[in-house]
């Protein structure tokens, strides 16, 4: 399955960070992980969406320590 990672910016826009194939073990790890490192930058995973039309799992991320980004309420 392909995973597409999007960063939610402070102004609410989405920026595509990465698109890559993930195997079943990495997808299972999403059940216990709250944070990911990509290119040396740490992100918090705030939402996931399974796009069955495109066979893509989309993850919405915010930069750790950022004031902007997703709604955490």
TrEMBL record:
Name the domain of life this protein comes from: Bacteria
Q: What protein name is recorded for this chain?
A: Uncharacterized protein
């Amino acid at each position: 399955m392909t995973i597409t990672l999007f960063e939610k910016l402070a102004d609410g826009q989405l920026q595509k960070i990465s698109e890559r194939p993930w195997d079943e073990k990495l997808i299972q790890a999403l059940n216990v992980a709250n944070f990911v490192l990509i290119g040396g930058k740490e992100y918090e995973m705030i939402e996931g969406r399974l796009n069955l039309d495109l066979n893509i799992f989309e993850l919405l991320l915010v930069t750790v320590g950022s004031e902007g980004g997703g709604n955490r309420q």
